[in-house]
Amino acid sequence: MGESELKKLREKAELSQEALARLIGVSVKTVSNWERGVYPAMLTVPQMKALCQALGVTLEELPDWFGPTETDRGTGD
Fold first, then answer.
1. CA-based angle 55:38:76, to the nearest 5?
2. Alpha carbon distance 59, 75 (integer Å)
3. What is the 3-class SS of the chain, one letter each residue?
4. Cα–Cα dist 55/52, whole Å
5. What b-and-e string marks burial along 21-45, b requiring 16 or more CB atoms within 10 Å of the CB?
6. pLDDT bracket for residue 71 (50, 70, 90)
7. Burial of 4: CB neighbours in 10 Å, binned 0-12, 13-18, 19+
8. What does the angle CA 16 – CA 3 – CA 65 come to, to the nearest 5 degrees?
9. Per-residue model confidence (pLDDT) at position 76
10. What are φ and ψ of residue 52, in 5° steps?
């Protein structure tokens, strides 16, 4: 089972879900939902900048999908 790209980046930055949520101004549940692929991230520009800064990455280095890899999302049927 492939891990969420956001979770990998968050753990590499040594941040908990709580810390990341606080830094970008969203709830812990929102970060958890992104990592589990419940729904796609919808961020404002300031939140996107804060996310990049918190994770130590550029915008180009952020994944297009924050949830589990395609093989983990299943077929949906």
1. 130
2. 29
3. CCCCHHHHHHHHCCCCHHHHHHHHCCCHHHHHHHHHCCCCCCCCHHHHHHHHHHHCCCHHHCCCCCCCCHHHHCCCC
4. 5
5. bebbebeeebbebbbbbeeebebee
6. low
7. buried
8. 90
9. 43
10. -60, -45
Cα distances from 60 to residues 16, 18, 39, 52, in angstroms, run 23, 24, 21, 10
What integer is the mean pLDDT of 55-77?
A: 74
| Token pair in block for residue 44 | 């404002």
Residue 69 pLDDT greater than 80, yes or no: no
This prediction has a pTM of 0.82
Which is the CATH superfamily of the domain at 5-70? lambda repressor-like DNA-binding domains (1.10.260.40)
